[in-house]
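ESCALATION

Customer reports they have been waiting on this structure for their group meeting. Please prioritize. Original submission:
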Amino acid sequence: MKVACVGGGPAGLYFSILMKRQNPSHDITVYERNEAGSTYGWGVTYWGSLIDKLHVHDPESAVAISENSVRWSDGVAHVGDRKTVHHGDTGFGIGRRRLLGILTERARSLGVRVEFEHTITNAAELPDADLVVACDGVGSALRERHAQHFGTEATAGRNTYIWLGTTKVFDSFTFAFVETEHGWIWCYAYGFSEDASTCIVECSPATWTGLGLDRASEADGLALLEQLFAGPLDGHRLIGRAQADGSAQWLNFRTLTNRTWHRGNLVLLGDAAHTTHYSIGAGTTLAMEDAIALAGALRGHDRRRGHDVHDARDVHDAHHVHPELRAALVQYERERRSALLPVQSAARYSAQWYENLPRYMQLAPPQMFALLGQRHSPLLPHIPPQLYYRIDRAAEQLEPLRRLKRWLGPRVARTLHARSRG
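Update from on-call: job pushed to the front of the queue and completed.
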């Protein structure tokens, strides 16, 4: 099988690794438009469940990723000059550049060709490929060429955010909330190496413009943020993400969905297929889980077809794709859509929690932090925060109340989702 992966992020690289492990005779090329070692962002997060899955599917890369990750088990929240700590599940951080380096090296060791500085904007540029995997991110050129077919929709969030690095090494997943005369501004920060951390700053549009961040130069903007978060940063610098114009960008997060994930022998993977708000820290995990699901669906396809799919190369007409390949792509999409439903719901409510932050900032910091941990709940927006906190604490002691909460939450979510689509 000849496979072309367009995009050299975690999704495409890990998919190429899994396909080569399944059948070394697969001819696989990963095309990455940027030069080697060039990537956006700082560190990425994941949780223990992901590393367990990676050990099952490719122990070599799992070990390398684990050995190059930092870990934490506490969450810390700074609210003004007050600090509260929550002991929770172990999380992990790894530099995005380091992660991509590990996956690239592993893919090449298995015989995958990784071609940097090679831009593909049209699947027709790959006429010999049996399968074209669009893993070229939220702005996927391959998907946009057929946006009407895929039914692509992107919804922008209300808040603005900026993705930064810092020389402060955080040993816990850290939140910091600062009240200004123009409203609240906050950051999420986590370590990803021995000498650096990621720091994502977010605020409402009114706070962003009120503080002058909409018109400040990068240097002035970073200086203001360093001043606002001087306590958690311990005097350390913030570093802007390098862009083509050398500046860091304030953005509105775009939640992207698609009506279908495949067209002929072209299939969407990772952020090209779906995005979930960064506040749940699931993007890299979901991309790699997509890769696992697609490779798994194609493994059954390989067995049924005896690895002979060279009659399935017309990317422009779905009717020319062999039914077995089409069935594998349908299976992959069905499996991942089902798995994504609770994650997408959690991400939606998490984003809304931050968009309505002032609602929760009247609570004492420990109570606010407790509800921060409950922000994925569909019940929380509809119950006064103080009352919800009391119910949540009571539910920890009373099993019937805990069962009622678990039963009621999904039903509220389904009702509200149906109304929003009606």
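Sent to customer with the following note: The two ends are 43 Å apart (CA to CA).
Escalation resolved.
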